[in-house]
Write a structure and sequence with these properties.
single chain; 6-stranded parallel sheet; 13 helices
Length: about 425
Amino acid sequence: MSEPSRRDFVKSTSAALAPAVLSAQNVNSELQLAWIGTGGRGYYLMERLYKGNSKPFKVVATCDTYDGNLARGKDRIQTMGGNTPMATKDYREILADKSVDAVVIATPEHLHYPMAIAALKANKHIYLEKPLAHTIEEGAEIVKLAEKVGRVVQVGTQNRSNTLYQKAKEMVAKGMIGDIHYVRAFWYRNSLPDNPAWRYTIPKDANEQNTDWPKFLGAAPKRPFHKGRYYQWRLYWDYSGGISTDLLVHQTDITNFVCGKTTPTSCMASGGIYRWTDAADDREVPDTFSALYEYPDKFHINYSCYFGNVKYGYGEQFMGNEGTIEVLNRQILTFTPETFGGKPPAHVAARKEERIELPGNDNLAVESHIKNWLAAIRGQEKLIAPVQVGQQAAISGHLATLSFRNNKKVLWDDKTQKYRFA
């Protein structure tokens, strides 16, 4: 696709799917933002804020429990924002500042709940990385309080702001693939033996003096300082749901978005640590994972993830009885009508195969997701991933974790908002 065509596609798709505009308020005010968590994801989000959003806004404060991340976040604000922020290891100092309008929370999963609750009680708007919380119950409390105080909470399931998924949603709504009962979603990765999955590089200077271990632990079980648990937290159940809440939630969430679904009625998950089995590796979460979901109205998701082969990459296949939409690596969309053995009905035969490729589209989606959040705070747009939707996404992930860890099928009752094992 040529660059002019690419720009036209992004603009036309965004316009077609733009949320309803709310009554504008404080449109020209300079929003005072603060960053809680400036590690890998938080640092990246800050870059996307500056590159993809025009002011008026100012990042006035930043927080991280590791000195290196704190200094790096402060430097990025000075370099890209042109101002020197307040820097602290204690997020409560930021929340106590009444001049701060909104916070970005990009911390380990187990800290989302206490930080989000505290931010809402301090009357702050929030951009909260997924998953919404570490458990279903914590997420429900965040939703309840957000609704009570009326703050704008955007959850970081940015695929909803990706123009290719918005295009897929349009195509499904128009009946381009007919009735849809089955979606296959997958996320495959691989790396060399000297770079095990999720074993992020630990800074050479990391020690107990420049890493605030008690603040990292929060309400998690107390234990001695452990560099691996701090810098590679995704590998441990105390702080992470592993594949279920880091990767899978993106794909069940976007399936909900594209196909008009909310929460499943059941999940059965299996897997284990099959790839990264070195005796010195104390990881707890699986590197090989599959989950089967049943939804109301005869709808099924078949999910798989493996950290030992990258050939098929990342994607979703929306498999209707008249055609298939496939989105790969967040930047390629293909549409293929069914052939019915060379005898397709006339309305199916009239449909042409389609391929759209937008390199780097995930960066644009994140920028758009942040922009939507800022516009919602100003009263200009409706959130595309509000806290209620974030909870729906998290529920799917938590059900998979519960099923895996208990080796049982888990059932979800959407009316009571409770789960039970089959």
